[in-house]
């Protein structure tokens, strides 16, 4: 068998197994994470309403813009990395879907 095909199949299977495990665990843990996130958001709103917490939204926006530009500069290298890992990504997605569907 061709070496490239063997590598492709190994990578696809590894991605599928990893995706399955992650999907299954995500399904089991998602409720707890959602509850914790909801409590966190409510706490932020309560603290903001009682003026115990003040958020400078202009600073958040500026920081977000700077971060976006830094990430955008690295776009080309990340795109190459993405295309090198397509077999793993496809296997991961398939495995994650199967992991989410299992009871």
Q: Overview of this structure, please?
A:
87% of the residues lie in helices and 0% in strands. By secondary structure, it is mainly alpha-helical. It has one domain. Helix 1 crosses helix 4. The two termini are 37 Å apart.
Counted beta strands? 0
Proportion of residues in helical segments: over 70%
Give the structural class. Answer: mainly alpha
Element order: H for helix, E for strand: HHHH
Average the pLDDT over all residues and give the rounded result. Answer: 83
Radius of gyration: 21 Å
Question: Ranges with pLDDT <50 over ≥5 residues?
Answer: none
> What is the count of helical runs?
4
Shape: flat
Major β-sheet profile: none
Distance between the termini: 37 Å
Query: How many structurally independent domains?
Result: 1
Instruction: Estimate what percentage of residues fall within beta strands.
Output: under 5%
What's this model, at a glance?
The protein has 103 residues and is an all-alpha fold. It contains four helices and no strands. Helices cover 87% and strands 0% of the residues.
Write the layout of secondary structure elements.
Blueprint: H1 3-49, H2 57-73, H3 75-84, H4 86-101
Helix pairs in contact: 1-4
Key descriptive features of the protein:
103 residues, flat, 4 helices, mainly alpha
